[in-house]
Amino acid sequence: MPRISIIVPVYNEDENILPLFYEIKKHCPEDFELIWIDDGSTDETLTEIQQLSFHEERIKCISLSRNFGHQNAMLAGLNYANGDYIITMDGDLQHPPSLIPKMIEKLNGGTDIVFTKRTCTKKTNWIQRTFTKLFFRFANFFSETKIDEDLTDYRAFNHKVLESVLQLQEKETFLRGIFTWIGYKSDIIHFTTSERMHGKTKYSFRKLIMAEMNKIILFNPNLVKFITTIVGLSIIVTLFNIPLWQLISPANSYNFSTWHILLNLLVVIMQLFLTVMIFKLVNISLYNNRKRPPYLVKETINF
Ligand code: UDP
Ligand code: MG
């Protein structure tokens, strides 16, 4: 039976540590190592993991020196995984461990990566949901790698895949994109996400949008096309904003309606978005040149 490494990044999830461990134990074959990555938690997360690790050697932990973000924390876990099969999952029980046997079965059957796709039951407000969806589609349109918006960070893969991902050594990581980009034989399991067991989501609307921007920048070989499209759209909206009749009848030129103001606002938003995007791009280049590591390890347990 192949050895399994389960990687779980956690940030302030103290109430979820024990329930998740028992759930994993229930569904996973005996020979597994559970690698928690404590991403600079400020609650009792690390203490909970430490207590568990006293009794169980297969409970391991990488404690980062501060909060480096979900993706970097997961990358840290990948660097420490020893198993023949590796599973990454969230620490809030939104990724049900009951899928693990099915994932292992598929890997045993010759699949290299098993992705999971969620049907969302999250109670996010509809404006946020619609906006995120539109943004996803927009970002995907310009991406070289089309990333399915419903794919999650709950996935299982073999050691060959792990080596390929680690070989990339990217500093600004968007792992869902990377796992799609590398290719290999893959399969998908569908599941329904439930509400998180305890605590609140750590992904604010702002973080989600920033992650999307990363996706556009990191997976788009033709950024110029993207930027030109935004500029083009801004010009079209601006022109549309000054209807011809106003040009013909200058008397009405200053008679701006709410509609005009909204369109103006849209142009301003697009331009600001572009500015942020360009700054982010410069920032990523600078960051990569500086050769700073994507995370720093404060201590490890049971390694
Ligand atoms: N997480 C992390 N570092 C962060 C933010 C989140 O390690 O800076 C962990 C978090 O504890 C959880 C997983 O990443 O185990 C997914 O986060 P969350 O559940 O908040 O995201 P959502 O499910 O709302 O997209
Ligand atoms: Mg969650």
Itemize the secondary structure elements and their pairings.
Blueprint: E1 4-10, H1 14-27, E2 32-38, H2 45-55, E3 59-64, H3 70-80, E4 85-88, H4 100-108, E5 113-119, H5 126-142, E6 155-158, H6 159-168, H7 175-181, E7 186-192, H8 205-218, H9 223-241, H10 244-248, H11 258-290, E8 297-301
Parallel strand pairs: 1-2, 1-4, 2-3, 5-7
Antiparallel strand pairs: 3-8, 4-6, 5-6
Helix pairs in contact: 1-2, 5-8, 9-11
Bound molecules: uridine-5'-diphosphate and magnesium ion (MG).
Describe this entry's structure for a reader.
The chain has 303 residues and is of the alpha/beta class. The chain folds into two domains: 4-200 and 294-301, Spore Coat Polysaccharide Biosynthesis Protein SpsA, Chain A, CATH 3.90.550; 223-290. Helix content is 50%, strand content 16%. The chain contains eleven helices and eight strands. The protein has helices spanning 14-27, 45-55, 70-80, 100-108, 126-142, 159-168, 175-181, 205-218, 223-241, 244-248, 258-290, and strands at 4-10, 32-38, 59-64, 85-88, 113-119, 155-158, 186-192, 297-301. It has an eight-stranded mixed beta sheet with strand order 7-5-6-4-1-2-3-8, with helices on both faces. The chain is elongated and about 80 Å long. The two termini are 22 Å apart. Bound molecules: uridine-5'-diphosphate and magnesium ion (MG). The site of magnesium ion has 5 residues, from loops. Uridine-5'-diphosphate (UDP) binds next to strand 1 and helix 3.
